[in-house]
Specification:
The chain has 122 residues and is mainly beta. The protein has a domain of 81 residues: Folate-binding superfamily (Folate-binding fold, 2-Layer Sandwich), CATH 3.30.2270. The protein is 7% helix and 27% strand. It has one helix and six strands. The chain binds zinc ion. Zinc ion binds next to loops.
Length: 122
């Protein structure tokens, strides 16, 4: 669990929110001209980076408003929260630092062994 700061309500527990996928996806304005492949790309294909990622979230158990978040998907570090329509903030984040390349915390995959500092260095 971690805290998410809703831009309308303030800090709340993660359980009050739902992830709504990648942010800044532009809806096609020429839908009748698109091929099946172009529609499939718009509807289904998203980037899935490990590291800095712009996401939409909704405060499901609160104000029910959507907003954007910049999050490091490897560490769950939240770098910025901003309202829909506001420009994406410029931020930087550090990459994973463990010897295996996995994030030290918050990998999102419970099957992955979490390495603590100094662990596995004998
Ligand atoms: Zn809210």
């Amino acid at each position: 669990m971690f805290l998410i700061t809703c831009p309308y309500c303030g800090p709340r527990d993660q359980s009050e929110f739902s992830n709504a996928g990648e942010a800044h996806i532009a809806r096609p304005t020429n839908g009748e001209e698109l091929s099946d492949e172009q529609w499939a790309d718009f509807v289904f294909l998203r980037t899935n980076p490990k590291g800095l990622f712009a996401e939409r979230w909704v405060h499901t158990a609160g104000c029910r408003r959507f907003f954007n978040m910049l999050r490091n998907t490897a560490t769950d570090e939240i770098l910025a929260v901003y309202r829909i329509g506001e420009p994406r903030p410029q931020v930087t984040t550090a990459g994973p630092v463990t010897p295996s390349g996995e994030a030290p915390i918050g990998s999102g995959n419970d099957a992955v062994k979490v390495m603590r500092p100094g662990e596995g260095t004998e």
